[in-house]
Amino acid sequence: MAESDDSLALAAEGARNENTLRFLKSGARGLYIGGRFVPSLSGKTFETINPANERRLAMVAEGGEADIDAAVAAARKAFDHGPWPRMRPADRAKVLYRLADIVQAHTEELAELDTLDSGLMISVTRPAAQGIPDALREAASWANKVQGETYPTGTDHFSFSLREPVGVCGIIIPWNGPAVLAARKPAIALACGNTVIVKPAEQTPLSALRLAELISEAGFPEGVINIVTGFGLGAGSALANHPGVDAMSFTGSAAVGQEIVRGSAINFKKVMLELGGKSPHVIFADADLERAVPNAALGVFRNHGQMCFAGSRILVQREIYPEFAAALAKFAADMKVASPWDPDAKIGPLVSAAQFERVTGYIDLGVREGARLSAGGRLDGGKGYYVRPTVFSDVENRMRIAQEEIFGPVASLIPFDTEEEAVAKGNDTVYGLGAGIWTRDVGRAIRMSRQLRAGHVWINGYGLRNEMAPFGGFKHSGIGREGGKYSVEFYSEMKSVFISV
Ligand code: NAP
Ligand code: MG
Question: Which of 72, 127, 281, 433 has the CB geometry, 3.0–4.6 Å to 277, for a possible disulfide?
């Protein structure tokens, strides 16, 4: 069912690109299975909402168990009998390079669809979408680097290893970077010769479906990439539990991560989990405060706090605590909360009503737990799921707001005295995704970076990324690492070959 032009114009307010509007106008979106767009077998659809104005953007096919069966069958056939895993790596890379070129001409509509669907600011989604073509090219460049080794032997035999694709890979993604994750996560799996099934988040299916249209032009053999929209309990769980899926790559919450691990037991799937965090950002008294204050603020408020590695626990050394707390509160209060299309906006709406309830619930909880609200709080009235950037000071690490992942623009300020105390408090969490350190003392920076139990440590610059560096978490923040050769290791199986001489 197509939306009426009037209601669509209201729902898609802010979008300018013709292709965005054409895509939204063309009606209900199907699943992409075996190289074709098909309705769900049940005929069911679900709506996707613009969180800035709470209006319906589109109806999307609701994939379920039977659709996942069909997608796994298509991916299995493409893997077992199709050309993709068998073709020259350079030819696989060519298809990915072609997709990169196609996407390059359409990044603006992917950005607009993400802003409409997720509420993320266009100032964030635009550069993110513009980075997709290079991420695809980077993945393509790995196609001919999926290598084995030879091993020293006596004269009796010769022995070497091969890296072969794992097979059919399930990829489940969240809503906080929809287009980028829908493109980047499968790309490296594909470069390695696997076939994939992607399940986008129910809140943000649109850019993945537009991407599916672009994928259909790039020349992949049928069944190599399949995109099945639907709910977590439904399409997601069917994929995670499917005996025909050889590997699962999941980005999302720790609770669902446990479901993915349970699902893997049925056939011993390889599992990679990129989960959440409650990352400490430690500010020592000798820090460059002019840089540390905005960096700490954006370390938690960027993407409206909807970031796996949000530095949501800001640990500040006692001597500078009052000054730092005041500066952070002022920074937060000065951030403009506005439409995600407003070029001056620093905070747009949260992704959904559920996320709004969750985040504001935590803000109420922080007050009840006895933390001091120094900036932000609920923003009542009006349409859209807006929450102001919120700072709690005098937080104790045992409080729930300091232990549980809020996934919204809420910072907890925690004082400390000594380096040892900073390490102890920093590590006092079940998570271990990121950790930040601000100090001018090199020795301390190195001591801290070795003692903090986290997959990433940022010294004097929170959130830096490098696609070649391993990305992933300790403890409840996940299993495995993504990025460059670490992704290749996950998306391939090693085989040892022995030849009698
Ligand atoms: P979520 O519930 O874990 O959802 C993530 C994805 O899993 C969605 O596609 C979801 O489908 C699906 N899903 C839900 N239940 C499932 C099940 N039983 N079996 C299989 N799939 C299932 O997470 P969220 O609350 O929407 O998203 C925010 C979370 O993601 C945060 O906790 C954040 O820390 C984490 N995250 C981590 C990273 C990282 O790199 N470590 C990056 C981004 C986000 P539905 O959309 O239908 O629920
Ligand atoms: Mg939406």
Answer: 433
Q: Is residue 330 within 8 Å of residue 294, measured between CB atoms?
A: no
> Mean of the per-residue pLDDT values for the chain?
96
What is the rounded distance in angstroms from the CA atom of residue 483 to the CA atom of residue 477? 16
CATH architecture of 5-275+478-496: 3-Layer(aba) Sandwich (3.40)
Say whether domain 280-466 belongs to CATH 3.40.309.10: yes
Residue 231 Cα distances to 154, 175, 387, angstroms: 56, 12, 25
Is residue 240 in contact with ligand 1, taking CB distance under 6 Å?
Answer: yes
* Ligand 1 site-directed mutation target among 62, 117, 248, 253, most atoms within 8 Å of CB: 253
Catalytic-residue membership of 192 = no
Tell me the mean pLDDT in the region 320-349: 97
Would residue 274 show up in a list of annotated catalytic residues for this protein?
yes
Cα-atom radius of gyration of the chain, to the nearest Å?
A: 23
pLDDT above 60: residue 1: no
Tens digits of per-residue pLDDT, 147-162?
Answer: 999 999 999 999 999 9
Which one from 112, 192, 259, 308 is the annotated catalytic residue? 308
Handedness of CA 190, 193, 194, 195 (dihedral sign): positive
Question: DSSP letter string over 229-289?
Answer: -B-IIIIIHHHHT-TT--EEEEES-HHHHHHHHHHHTTTT-EEEEE-----EEEE-TTS-H
Residues 243 and 397 sit within 8 Å (Cβ to Cβ) = no
Same fold, 5-275+478-496 and 280-466: no
Residue 6: count of CB within 10 angstroms of its CB? 8
Q: Is 117 in the pocket of ligand 1 (CB under 6 A)?
A: no
How far is 375 from 358, CA to CA, in rounded Å? 18
Our answer on whether the CB atom of 231 is closer than 6 Å to any ligand 1 atom is yes
Kindly identify the ligand whose nearest atom is closest to the C-alpha of 238.
Answer: 1
Domain ranges across the chain: 5-275+478-496, 280-466
The model's confidence at residue 482, banded by pLDDT at 50, 70 and 90, is: very high
